[in-house]
Specification:
Blueprint: H1 32-57, H2 72-85, H3 91-95, H4 100-103, H5 127-167, H6 171-182, H7 187-190, H8 197-211, H9 229-248, H10 253-266, H11 271-295, H12 323-326, H13 329-335, H14 341-344, H15 351-358, H16 360-368, H17 383-417, H18 435-448, H19 453-475, H20 491-496, H21 507-528
Helix pairs in contact: 1-5, 1-6, 2-5, 5-6, 5-8, 5-18, 6-18, 6-19, 8-9, 8-10, 9-10, 9-11, 10-17, 15-18, 15-21, 16-17, 17-18
Length: 566
């Protein structure tokens, strides 16, 4: 993802050196030690801040009557059963009211159906309880939430690394963006909420990091040579990460499917690896369905849910869904007064122009009409020049698709598949799985459009203020993470509420503001889009055939870092 007239990159901000090619012309690194040190420092900083921000949220109650609420007790009871009994049956945990010390003395809402063998298995996929079994068994609910906070730190660190090493984002910009996102809602909140959202986001960004790395760089193996062990390992890791997503929750299957298809497409020239990965996906899918039929009695975990015995397991998507009505969530997920991303962290509004800007590589490749296969150079062009240009365009188009397509899958799932966006949870829950990808899109926009960085900083700081106020009011037990949070005293949140639609009011109550936000959203996307065709393009090939020269232009077109402008 590149742009015309890019900002010059100072040495302190440049991406670190490394073996992996970087889109956008970040393949050339000078002295690597200082830059690698800067990246390591930034990774450590964002990991610590993200973990601390999540840990601070543990002190805020999930509801006024308990420290955990809604689905959280189900995950924790299952984790406890795995640790103590090595099974998923929570019958004894329910009978002994093991939830009372941390979920309150009121009876838990009934979620489980007693199965034919007398067991009760929570209607939630088991990977999160498996991950939390040891901390829950040894340290209780606080240790389990602390483990979630450590995952939040890992997510921040990996997102920054991916931004720098895969998308050529300057270190300082990447660190600032990741800090603002990780220390504000919804990532900071779900960094300690016992839900699979944040682990799923970690799996998704890890899969993206592998997908955009050397293992999926494309091209057939020369002379039938075997792939290096590292490449085979990375492909295997990618397969495991994709498999993990539906085991965290079946609702992540669309995101997993899109990432899997992108990986298979990238390997299309390497038939052996392609068939191995496709066979692995088929085997894992069959195992998923077989285990769910055997344990939960259906194709999904919802087959064991008390609420779905009459409607069937697919009633989780709604008993009589109005998909046309759900379409308002396309905007509402961003702009809803209580449950929209922008209400709590206004910097997420930058995602809209970033989406328009992210279309640049795909449209540029289509406009160029150039060959996608190296060596098929048009008549009258240098083979080396054509090779480098077509390779850079194809790479950038794929990297852009690797961000946009899973993001679209997650957003559409939250729009049309999820039962509601206004549930008993913290806002933004259904979008968390793809928010790191959204953040990478925003960072790519800010990388090439430095004029937007002050706006991003101001909006991001507003989100930090909102989160600090939520923590203060939460410690004072004026609000909780599940209920009453819209009564937070943050003056910034109170100021924006009147201009945001409340989709719980019905069409008559929200349509004027909704239509206004539809227009605003389209304008913001269009604001990013003009750069697709405007002005001189900036194509930087990290390994052009005539790298040592000025290329087909003036010597003044050579950048200070030794790369050339085209």
């Amino acid at each position: 993802m590149t742009a015309d007239h890019p900002p010059e990159t100072r040495a302190a901000d440049a991406p670190s050196a490394g073996p992996d090619p970087l889109p956008g012309g970040a393949g050339a690194a000078g002295p690597g030690a200082a830059r690698s040190g800067a990246v390591r420092t930034a990774i450590g900083l964002v990991a610590v801040v993200a973990t601390a921000a999540a840990l601070l949220g543990i002190g805020v109650r999930a509801r006024f009557g308990g420290h955990v609420a809604v689905d959280e007790p189900q995950y924790l009871l299952t984790a406890l059963s795995i640790f103590e009994d090595l099974d998923l049956d929570i019958t004894d945990e329910l009978a002994e009211r093991r939830w009372a010390p941390w979920a309150g003395t009121e009876a838990l809402p009934v979620q489980t159906e007693v199965l034919a063998d007398g067991t009760q298995i929570s209607p939630h996929d088991p990977l999160l309880p498996i991950l939390l079994a040891v901390p829950m068994g040894l340290g209780g609910w606080i240790a389990a939430k602390a483990a979630m906070a450590l995952m939040a730190g890992a997510l921040a660190a990996l997102t920054l690394w991916t931004a720098v090493r895969r998308f050529a984002v300057p270190v300082r910009l990447a660190a600032g963006g990741v800090l603002l996102a990780s220390a504000s809602p919804p990532l900071a909140v779900y960094g300690q909420q016992v839900y699979p959202e944040l682990p799923a986001a970690l799996a998704a960004v890890a899969a993206l990091a592998v997908l955009t790395g050397p293992a999926f760089a494309g091209g057939a193996r020369a002379g039938g040579a075997e792939r290096p062990p590292r490449i085979r390992r990375d492909v295997a890791v990618f397969g495991l990460l994709i498999t993990a997503l539906p085991w965290l929750s079946v609702k992540y299957a669309p995101v997993a499917a899109v990432l899997a298809l992108l990986g298979l497409w990238r390997l299309r020239a390497d038939r052996g690896t392609l068939l191995s990965l496709a066979g692995g996906f088929a085997a894992m899918g069959a195992a998923y369905l077989a285990v769910h039929r055997l344990v939960w009695g259906g194709w999904t975990v919802y087959a064991s849910g008390d609420h779905f015995q009459a409607s069937g397991e697919f009633g989780v998507m709604g008993f009589d869904p109005d998909y046309a009505g759900r379409a308002v969530r396309l905007v509402g997920l961003m702009a809803d007064r209580g449950y929209g991303l922008a209400a709590w962290q206004p910097a997420w509004l930058l995602l809209l122009p970033a989406v328009g800007y992210g279309l640049l590589p795909a449209l540029r490749r289509r406009r160029s009409g150039g060959p996608a296969v190296p060596g098929d150079a048009p008549a009258g062009t240098s083979r080396g020049t054509s090779h480098g240009a077509s390779r850079a365009v194809a790479r950038d188009a794929f990297h852009s698709a690797a961000l946009l397509l899973p993001l679209a899958a997650g957003w559409l799932t939250a729009t049309f598949v999820a039962l509601t966006m206004n549930g008993h949870w913290w806002p933004g829950r259904q979008t968390v799985v793809v928010l790191p990808l959204a953040l990478l899109l925003v960072l790519a926009l800010l990388r090439d459009r430095p004029g937007l960085r002050p706006a991003g900083l101001v909006l991001g700081l507003a989100g930090l203020v909102n989160h600090a106020w939520l923590l203060a009011d939460g410690y004072a037990v004026r609000i909780t993470w599940v209920s009453g949070f819209e009564q937070v005293g943050s003056p910034l949140y109170r100021a924006v509420r009147p201009v945001l639609p409340d989709y719980r009011l019905g069409w008559d109550g929200f349509w004027p503001l909704h239509l206004g936000w539809v227009l605003v959203s389209l304008l913001l996307i269009a604001y990013g889009t003009p750069y697709l065709t405007k002005g001189r393009t900036h194509e930087v090939d990290p390994d052009p055939g005539d790298r040592d020269g000025a290329g087909p232009g003036r010597s003044a077109d050579v950048r200070p870092d030794g790369l050339r402008r085209r």
